[in-house]
Specification:
- By secondary structure, the protein is mostly helical.
- It is 82% helix and 2% strand.
- Strands 1-2 form a two-stranded antiparallel sheet.
């Protein structure tokens, strides 16, 4: 992808996510509708601006898909364990402020049915965030800066777009997830594995076995 196009998609992601986290939604256009819209817009921008995007995804999804799905599920369990330990550590070391930050993350569920949240995560957020942040952004950054620097840059940008939330716990969570999924992509070069990991982890941490309370 040309540098100008790469800068454009990064700026677009920053604008979309800053608006989302700064407001938490706009009336009936709540957090989940906005997240879903972000996903569609970024996915469309990626396909339009990077002609190598779709072929790379097709090749990935066709090669050893069952092994990649299994790897994604296993990695989601590992990441969940990391957050389980981190949840207890933060609540013990920092106390109420950490608990309040964690509970604020779960506040995004207010006003939306669990079914809509689950479908948005499974069909839009989990898949498209990995396709965009790792499959498009990290892959293109690696061409210019090398794989390790690309991981660092993509992770910094991923965590950075969460700053507008004003929630240090959310930014820390995004940083940890960015490092984890960025390393996975660096190691296995599989967006499919990352998609399964991200989606399964989101469903576990946000709906099935949440950390708040």
């Amino acid at each position: 992808m040309k540098t100008s196009r790469l800068v454009f998609v990064v700026a677009l992601a920053a604008v979309l996510f800053t608006g989302l986290f700064a407001t938490g939604g706009a009336g009936a256009f709540d957090f989940w509708w906005w997240m879903g819209t972000n996903a569609v817009v970024l996915l469309a921008a990626g396909f339009l601006l990077d002609p190598t995007y779709a072929p790379a995804l097709r090749d990935d999804f066709r090669t050893h898909p069952l092994a990649k799905i299994a790897g994604g599920l296993a990695s989601a369990a590992v990441l969940y364990g990391v957050f389980w330990a981190g949840n207890h550590l933060l609540r013990t070391a920092i106390g109420a402020p950490a608990g309040q930050g964690i509970d604020r993350v779960y506040g995004f569920r207010e006003g939306a049915t669990l079914l809509r949240i689950a479908l948005t995560i499974a069909l839009l957020i989990g898949p498209t965030e990995e396709v965009f942040w790792r499959g498009l952004l990290q892959r293109n950054l690696a061409v210019r800066f090398g794989p390790v620097r690309a991981l660092g840059l993509a992770t910094a940008l991923y965590a950075g777009v969460h700053l507008a939330s004003g929630n240090a716990v959310l930014v820390l969570a995004a940083l940890v997830c960015g490092v984890f999924w960025g390393w996975m992509y660096l190691r296995w070069k599989s967006v499919l594995m990352n998609v399964v990991s991200h989606t399964a982890w989101d469903l576990l941490a946000f709906l099935i076995l949440p950390f708040h309370g």
